[in-house]
Structures are given as C-alpha cells and as structure tokens.
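User: I'm putting together a small comparison set for a docking exercise, and I want a reference complex before I start. The sequence is below, and the ligand is S-adenosylmethionine. Could you produce the 3D structure with the ligand included, as structure tokens?
Assistant: Of course. I'll restate your input first, then give the structure tokens for the complex.
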Amino acid sequence: MARFLAGAPGLRLEDHPEVYPPSDDTFLILEAIRRPKGSVLEVGTGSGIIAAACARTAEWVVATDQNPHAVRLARQNIARNGLEAEVVAADLFDGISGRFDMVVFNPPYLPTSPEDVTGDRWLDLSVNGGPDGLGPARRFLAGVEAHLSPGGRALTLVSSLSAGRLRAPGGLSLRPVGSRKLPFETLTVLEARRVGGRPTGGRAP
Ligand SMILES: C[S@@+](CC[C@H](N)C(=O)[O-])C[C@H]1O[C@@H](n2cnc3c(N)ncnc32)[C@H](O)[C@@H]1O
C-alpha cells in the first residue's frame, strides 16, 4: 500500500521486502541535496525516493541500482508521483555516459565479513560495505569524477561504524556537509568537488 513518508514531503511511495526502505541515512542525504537544478545522477536508488525528490526541481534525473526489485520499484514510485527519471539496472555508473551537476550515492556502509554475505538476499546489497564498510563509497569516489560537470558536486555518506577513513582520490576535494548522531552511530554526508572545477576526462552530455 502506498504511504506518505516523513522527510519526503508530498511523495507517495511503496516499499518492497527486497528493497531498502527510506531510513535516517536517506533523510540526511535528502537534507544535503536541498532543491537541485540541472542534471542529477543517483547511484543505488533503492525505493527511488531521492531520485523522485530530485525530479521535482531538476531538469534531468538518471538513477541506477544493481537490485532489479529496486529498479522496478523506483520506476513505479517515480511514476506514481507524476515525476520523470530514467532508472536503469547498473553496477555504479556502468553504461552511464555524460556529466551531471550532482551525483549522489547513499552507499551500503556496514562493515561485513565475507562469511556474513550469503549472496541470496538482494537486501544484503543495501548494507554490505565490505571489510571496513567503505568499499562501495570508495569505488564510487574513484569513478565519480568522470561523471561530474565542471562545477558539479558529488554526495555520499559514511558511518562511525566504518572501520576506516575515506580519502579523496586525486582531483577531488572532500568535506563534510551534514551529520546526525543516532543511538548506535553517527552518520556524515560528504561532498566531493573537482579541485579547480575543470574536467579531466570523460564525455560531456
Ligand atoms: C543504503 S541503500 C540506499 C537506497 C536509497 N538510495 C535510499 O537512500 O534510501 C543502497 C542502495 O544501493 C544499491 N547498490 C549497492 N551497491 C550498488 C552498486 N555497486 N551499484 C548500484 N547500486 C548499488 C543497493 O541495491 C541499495 O538499493
């Protein structure tokens, strides 16, 4: 059954047992996004809530997820709100060309040992951050520069539960732009921008 969610004013969203439900991390990222203009790429869209919120003000929104249930649900949720975004099944940015004014990824961030990963639950993909919890965010930052427009920004999130620290890859600067203390962890939104604001490769849209 469709329901309204606090933190996503005015959006009607359905959930699915195999798809990550909007949570504290989702809402913290939404606060940092504000009202985007121009083009947005969301990696790992889950229910589609962030892509839908962006589609209300942005000109062009593309979203990806590796989980086929999430791709289907996000398409439905975006359409049921009368919004438009292209949702594709992809690993991170695979098959995505062009540069975007904003690129967002609320990544899986829980430290996970190989024996915890059964591989038979799509939801594992939402939480499994690898041994130090930072694997997916690190891969995201390593590839995001090729998808950022010259003045663009990328947003991702880390948890105090992670067993390491994210470093900005060469060519990007990284700074915290939002934080929330929860009972068992502190979540921090990180913003990456290209140093000097000049493209270093990739294709223009
Ligand atoms: C923590 S959930 C966030 C979902 C949604 N964006 C939100 O904020 O509520 C992470 C999402 O990323 C997806 N994901 C994980 N690894 C991915 C990858 N390599 N490429 C694309 N999507 C991925 C998962 O399937 C999941 O939907």
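The longest strand covers residues 148-159. The domain at 18-197 is CATH 3.40.50.150 (Rossmann fold).
User: Thanks, that's exactly what I needed.
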